TrEMBL record:
Alphabetical list of PROSITE patterns matching this protein: TOPRIM
Role this protein plays: May play a role in DNA repair. It seems to be involved in an RecBC-independent recombinational process of DNA repair. It may act with RecF and RecO.
Domain Toprim: 80-175
Provenance organism: Methylococcus capsulatus
Similarity section: Belongs to the RecR family.
Chain ranges of zinc fingers (C4-type): 57-72
Protein name: Recombination protein RecR
Length: 198
């Protein structure tokens, strides 16, 4: 079936979601328009509200509705520990699976010069300021074990060294190229507890 106008526009828009190809996007579109228009309205409103309210935490760059996220705003967290992750999903995974009580910093990506992603795009100027001022004693690298994740880890450990801060890397049982977000809780917890100097 060939679509045009608003239908085609919606199909194309849904393809921005991970794992959604043209056929799935078409199925979703027809479902929303034909069978569940109430849900379509809720989806549209929820998306509008979320886009309006949710931004990045000023300190750690995770997603939040406030200027500081719940971790950064909490007085009970150990401010000498700073765990670096690539995405907000990994903040949730680590919080859920490990007993970690320190703070986070979210890169929202990884260094990839060929794609135009350098230190500035990852907020590393903000991070460096924190390493300078904030009493961080250990930088825990939880970047993924992809090539870019490794390059990012090396860049960060050099930065930490310049400020005399110990760097550790979580390791055990995380497969090479593995995305932390998809690792099961027990493996992640083990990897976290078994972190080694980097
Ligand atoms: Zn935060």
């Amino acid at each position: 079936m060939r679509q045009a106008g608003a239908i085609a526009e919606l199909i194309e828009a849904l393809r921005c979601l991970p794992g959604v190809g043209p056929k799935t996007a078409q199925r979703m579109t027809l479902h929303l328009l034909q069978r569940d228009r109430d849900a379509a309205g809720r989806l549209s409103e929820a998306l509008r509200q979320a886009l309006e309210k949710v931004g990045l935490c000023a300190q750690c760059r995770t997603l939040t509705e406030h200027s500081l996220c719940e971790y950064c705003a909490s007085p009970g967290r150990d401010r000498s520990l700073l765990c670096i992750v690539e995405s907000p999903a990994e903040v949730l995974a680590i919080s859920r699976s490990t007993g970690y009580k320190g703070l986070f910093f979210v890169l929202n990506g990884r260094l990839s010069p060929l794609d135009g992603i350098g230190p500035e795009e990852l907020g590393l100027d903000v991070l460096e300021q924190r390493l300078k001022d904030d009493g961080v004693a250990e930088l825990i690298l939880a970047t993924n074990t992809t090539v870019e994740g490794e390059a990012t880890a090396h860049y960060l450990s050099d930065m930490a060294r310049r400020h005399g801060i110990r760097t550790t890397r979580i390791a055990h049982g995380i497969p090479f190229g593995g995305e932390l977000e998809y690792v099961d809780g027990a493996t992640l917890s083990h990897a976290f507890d078994g972190r080694k100097d980097f």
